[in-house]
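Q&A log
Question type: sequence-to-structure
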Amino acid sequence: MAEPHLLKGAKPGLGLTLVELMVGLTIAGLLAITAMPHFADYSQNARLREAGHLLLAEAMAAQSEAIKRNSRIRLAASSTTVQLLDLVDPNQPLLVHERSLSNGLSVGTASIDFGSDGRTLPFGTVGAIDLSITGISCSSDLRCPGLRVDAGGTARLCVDRRVGCP
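Response status: OK
Response body:
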């Protein structure tokens, strides 16, 4: 008589044994543990990039508001906030809007003024605002971006302010 697993129409076992399953899970766990430090760097870099794009958008909004309002608009950054201020009356600036940075992100204290033609004021000045994460220094693994605005009002985001970001 034929073996039960060799009967017509019967297929040999296609499942996994418990030992095979445990070996697979162990290998997957070791790979996950190995990748964890790189994931933390990736996560921090993603947060910094997101905040950098927020700064760039705010600089473009300040320039646009200056042209639209035919007024002087200031992009002011301090600690964890970024503000757009209308300087119709320089002694009492009018808050256009404010954005807050979260998750330990911070900006250096700086301000950039845009005139009604969209250029920086006083004419010919350049502006810079740098991002960082509180308690962590920038490195080749943690790339802290910087916003740069040239004399003509062109805003750009440097991916890593430590290299190639004058």
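Response note: The mean pLDDT is 86.
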